[in-house]
Fold this sequence. Notes:
Blueprint (H helix, E strand, L loop, with lengths): L12 H15 L4 H15 L17 H27 L12 H13 L5 H18 L6 H10 L2 H30 L4 H25 L6 H8 L1 H7 L3
Helix pairs in contact: 1-2, 3-4, 3-5, 3-6, 4-5, 5-7, 7-8
Amino acid sequence: MGTSQSHSLKTTPQWSAAKKAMTSVIKDHGNAQKQSRLMTAFGTAVGDGLYRGGNRGGGGSFGQAGSRALGNVVQFISDVRSLGIGGAIDSLGLPLEEQPQTPRELIRVICGLTSADSDALHDDEAAVEAQEKLLSMIFEQCDSLADIETLLQQADEDTIDGWILDFEVEYIMEYMGGLFQSHIFDKNATPETVCNEIKQWLRSELDNRLADEMHHINVFSPEGKAYIDTLTARILDIWQ
């Protein structure tokens, strides 16, 4: 379902309920009501372990690595728009010999910023996987760093907001996938198929519920950074 490893579910009533909700989704493909119930059960199971901003010292909270990953992407976009691609890369503080020369090398560098100081292994894995997928999608048609500069400088607000929501969908599904992957296999279902169905539904839901709200927020401003820092929690709260 995305992540390279499967992780064990906690044996609590809340996680048992989330597991049952996933079973219902597997048995009834594309049922929006059951997908909504899965999000409710998942958010309840995460509970107090959901990162809601502020102090990043408490490793283990779902949402913490995602906040860092998304913040790094948005900051890099902001730097490219104001400093150009060369200035943005310089701002990363890398030795000259380590500076990226191709789009693929740039993706590895940005993803490396996310995984550098995380203590929450599964959260970190999900964030890096989602970040790599997002950047690969954004840079898909870019053959050079100059192409990336042009792309990011010409991107409008709606496009950038869409990228942010794309990341959140991938991040949530990567995290959920690492927990439920073995369970889906046990039900003789294909993780990628289940994941894609939920992703399509979730992306549409976020577009309907958050696109207008985000249109009024400058994601490069302090207010926008604070919004992004807690966006995963905002999303899961929709179904609580």
